[in-house]
Each structure stands twice: as structure tokens, then as C-alpha cells.
Design a protein that fits this description.
Blueprint (H helix, E strand, L loop, with lengths): L8 H11 L3 E4 L6 H6 L1 H21 L5 E7 L24 H20 L2 E7 L1 E3 L8 H13 L6 E5 L5 E6 H14 L5 E4 L4 E3 H11 L7 E5 L17 H7 L7 H19 L1
Parallel strand pairs: 1-2, 2-3, 3-7, 4-6, 5-9
Antiparallel strand pairs: 6-8
Helix pairs in contact: 1-3, 3-4, 5-7, 5-9, 7-9
């Protein structure tokens, strides 16, 4: 592991010159929609400027590295109001600073591939979740709260939530990692690929699934909405069409969503039991 400040071009140049990488996954990002409203400048600096620094470095060095730039399914934004599953040709209508930043680096990466011949492709990801995820994100936050409750003797517990009616396409991180490997191997320069499960799930159903898997009874848990957890101008529904990527690579999700929730809950159980 080598530290690199993605907001400083000299830092990125130093790393690329030192290692002359054959494969680059640009994962540096401020990746929370809610945080993007709180820190829009930081979000743009890392997600856009940092990505451009990388692209410029590769251009100047005439690099032949294969590069994967990480965009997001949220770039389609208000286009989701059509109610259809969206493929890669759907219109971008971002609704928050995070999605705007991802739209920008998405466009720029593909331009650098077409204009300068860089071997860059783009992946537009659904919501990844599973063991290891930060509590900045709803599903892991729910699992952490429930696992912590299981270690407490209280008769009534409260879960704080945001908007439970929002629907998202959730993909297990382990299926996601397989997809990213295949995207790097088979992705064509200048092309973008949706990577998603193809199923849209409401947060209220996911929370209920975690409660069903818990050691607590349903009547022991009270759910309380907290307005600070609701993103501004939230996208009500996200569902991606990943058939282009599946046809290219043969990839399919393998892990059932219930297993994803169980593994996430088990990880937080281990964490809170060790913390006691």
C-alpha cells in the first residue's frame, strides 16, 4: 500500500511513474450522496479533478495501461421517473452533487479514450452492499444498529432511518468484484457498462429482511424517521439494465440477497460482541 492524494496531480504522477501499472482501477471517491450535499467541493475535487489528473498523467506518459473509471447508476437521476430499466443510452439527469461528479468523469474518461487512444472504459454501478460496508450507507447502517441491539438487554429498541420508500438496485459486493474483474479484462475503450442485479428493492423491505434475520422479535424494534438521514431531492427508484455487460462477459449475480443480508448482519454481530 502506497499513499496517494488524488487531489494533487503531482502525487498521482509520482505513483504512475514509479510503478508503470498495467491495470488501474480508479476508486478514489467521496461516494455518499448525503455527504455530497454536505461537502460538494470535496466531492468534485476527488471524483472529478482527481480523475482528470489521472487521465492527463496517462496521456502525457503515453500509457498503455487498461483503466477502469467508476461512474454510478445515479447519473441517470430523474430519467428513472420513466419507470423503465435503463440501459447505457439513457439520458443523464443527475439530481445531486455526487451524481453530477460521476457524470462528469464518465464523459471525460470516454472522451480521453476516443480522442487520445487511452485504454479507458467506464462502469456504472448499482448500489453495492455486503460485508465490509461503511455505516454511511443505509443497509450496513441498519445491520449495525440491529446487531448492536442484540447485545443489549433492553426490551424496546429504536432504529433511526431515512426514506424507506426509496427503491434501489442492490448488488452483493462479491458479485460486484467479479464483475469489475471481467470489466477490466473485456471492457472496450470508450465504452460504458451498467453493472447491476436487475432487481429494484425498497429500503423498507430490506430493513424488514434484516429484522426477520435478527435474534430480536419484531415488536422489540421501533422504527423512527430522522430527517437528517434523508438526502435532498432523492431519486425515488433505480433499476439498471445490465444486458450489454452480461452479453459481453457472461457475468451473472450468484449470491442471493438474503445471504447478503445475513453475512452483513453476522459481520456486525462479530464487531459489536468484540466491542463489549
Amino acid at each position: 500500500l502506497v499513499r496517494c492524494d488524488a487531489t494533487k496531480q503531482s502525487s498521482i504522477q509520482r505513483i504512475v511513474r514509479r510503478f508503470s501499472p498495467d491495470y488501474i482501477y480508479y476508486l478514489a471517491a467521496q461516494s455518499s450522496v448525503r455527504q455530497a450535499w454536505l461537502k460538494p467541493v470535496e466531492t468534485i475535487q476527488v471524483n472529478v479533478i482527481g480523475g482528470v489528473y489521472l487521465l492527463e498523467t496517462l496521456r502525457r506518459l503515453n500509457s498503455k495501461a487498461r483503466v477502469l473509471i467508476f461512474s454510478s447508476g445515479t447519473t441517470y437521476g430523474a430519467t428513472y421517473l420513466s419507470g423503465k430499466s435503463l440501459d447505457e443510452e439513457a439520458c443523464f439527469k443527475p439530481k445531486d452533487p455526487y451524481s453530477v461528479s460521476k457524470m462528469a468523469i464518465d464523459f471525460l474518461a470516454r472522451l480521453y479514450a476516443h480522442v487520445f487512444g487511452l485504454r479507458v472504459s467506464v462502469v456504472r454501478l448499482a448500489n453495492l452492499t455486503g460485508p465490509g460496508q461503511s455505516t454511511l450507507f443505509s443497509v450496513s447502517n441498519f445491520a449495525s444498529q440491529i446487531a448492536k441491539m442484540e447485545t443489549s438487554p433492553r426490551s424496546i429498541h429504536i432504529i433511526e432511518v431515512g426514506n424507506l420508500s426509496a427503491k434501489r438496485d442492490y448488488l452483493d459486493i462479491r458479485d460486484g468484484i467479479r464483475a469489475l474483474y471481467l470489466a477490466m479484462k473485456y471492457g472496450r475503450p470508450g465504452e460504458a457498462y451498467n453493472i447491476a442485479s436487475g432487481t429494484s428493492r425498497a429500503l423498507k423491505d430490506i430493513l424488514q429482511g434484516l429484522i426477520d434475520l435478527s435474534e430480536l422479535k419484531g415488536n422489540e424494534i421501533n422504527i423512527r424517521r430522522k430527517d437528517s438521514l434523508v438526502p435532498k431531492d432523492e431519486i425515488p427508484r433505480i433499476k439498471l439494465d445490465s444486458s450489454k455487460f452480461r452479453k459481453l462477459t457472461g457475468w451473472r449475480p450468484k449470491i442471493k440477497f438474503r445471504q447478503t443480508l445475513k453475512d452483513l448482519l453476522d459481520e456486525w454481530r462479530k464487531y459489536w460482541r468484540q466491542a463489549k
